[in-house]
UniProtKB/TrEMBL annotation:
One of its GO terms (molecular function) is thiamine pyrophosphate binding. This is Extracellular solute-binding protein. One of its GO terms (biological process) is thiamine transport. Keywords: Signal. It comes from Staphylococcus gallinarum.
């Protein structure tokens, strides 16, 4: 009986240890926490396996908001050795927790925009509208040319968009509305778009495209590259560059400051990803981030835009409040 009790206590202690210190503290493998979608993760895995790191890393996928929350709350105690995440989350987490190390001996081309020395940009996500041409014809709807067009009453229940509370892709549409129309007019436009969205407000950035591909709705708001790829795969999808602009977000990677040989290995793995994955990632996410990069003409947006100030978690929260205020106003009517 005593032996069983001792074994039981030891098992409890082991479980408590793993739950408290996390996977990153209990494995020799480099843990990569990422908000990237399946296409980017596939490219990263392929690169690392080809370069001799197979079996030496673990990739842990999270939503953007979930991983961002972990970074802000846990700092250096996060289980990950490498984090790939939207730059505004990386920079906000660094400001609060000083959790990332500067990348030394960076053998990489010069970036188009300036980034902190602990950040290595990996890919760019650009927003757009997209339509199912067959569904539009069936519903007798015109192809929208702007985000504002989606506020017209004829698009009722025919729009799917990502929720900014769950998806960073949802932030791109809010930026385009506020950037073009400001708070007052933008509020009126967003209210009508949310009403037209009805039950099709999605928690993931890829959700709207799936609904548009199926024909459940005719119009979607999401990532331009995904719509282009869907059309190339033979779906009746046409992307639309809205006149308000194609806003974009950059996803990058950073090494958590934990010290020791594992941190050095994490840095080597990150540099391997950057040096050997970028060409393939640029095909999947055709947003130039480094000097000299080019994309083919079909992949170039008509109206590329950037938010007037540097993106941050505080700005995201401000825009989330704007979205929620409009949504509550609709619900209270």
């Amino acid at each position: 009986m005593k032996l069983k009790m001792i074994i039981g206590v030891l098992l409890c202690l082991i479980l408590l240890y793993f739950s408290y210190f996390g996977l990153g503290s209990s494995t020799d493998k480099v843990v990569i926490a990422t908000n990237a979608d399946e296409e980017a993760i596939s490219v990263i895995k392929k690169t690392l396996d080809q370069k001799g790191y197979k079996g030496e890393y673990i990739i842990q996928p999270y939503s953007t908001a979930e991983l961002g929350g972990k970074m802000i709350a846990e700092g250096k105690n996060i289980e990950a050795d490498i984090v790939t995440q939207s730059t505004y989350y990386l920079e906000s987490a660094q400001d609060k927790n000083n959790m990332f190390v500067s990348i030394k001996n960076r053998n990489q081309p010069k970036t188009i925009d300036d980034f902190p020395n602990y950040v290595i940009p990996l890919l760019g996500n650009m927003g757009s509208l997209f339509v199912n041409t067959k569904a539009l014809e069936k519903q007798g709807l015109p192809i929208p040319k702007s985000v504002k067009d989606l506020s017209k009453p004829e698009y009722i229940n025919q729009i799917s968009m990502p929720n900014i509370m769950d998806s960073s892709t949802g932030w791109l549409i809010i930026q385009s509305i506020l950037g073009a129309y400001g708070q007052e007019e933008g509020r009126k436009i967003l209210e009508k778009i949310i009403k037209n969205t009805g039950p099709h407000l999605e928690s993931s950035g890829s959700g709207p495209l799936k609904k548009v591909e199926s024909g459940e709705v005719a119009v979607g708001i999401g990532l331009r590259a995904q719509a282009v790829k869907s059309a190339q795969n033979g779906n009746p999808i046409q992307f639309v560059d809205p006149k308000e602009g194609n806003y974009s977000l950059v996803e990058a990677a950073a090494v958590v400051n934990k010290g020791g040989e594992k941190q050095q290995k994490a840095q080597e793995i990150l540099q391997t990803i950057q040096q050997n994955s970028r060409e393939e990632l640029l095909k999947e996410y055709p947003v130039p981030l480094y000097e000299g990069e080019e994309v083919n003409e079909k992949q170039r947006p008509k109206y590329p835009r950037k938010w007037k100030k540097r993106l941050s978690v505080k700005l995201l929260e401000k825009h989330q409040d704007f979205f929620n205020d409009v949504k509550k106003q609709i619900e209270n009517k």
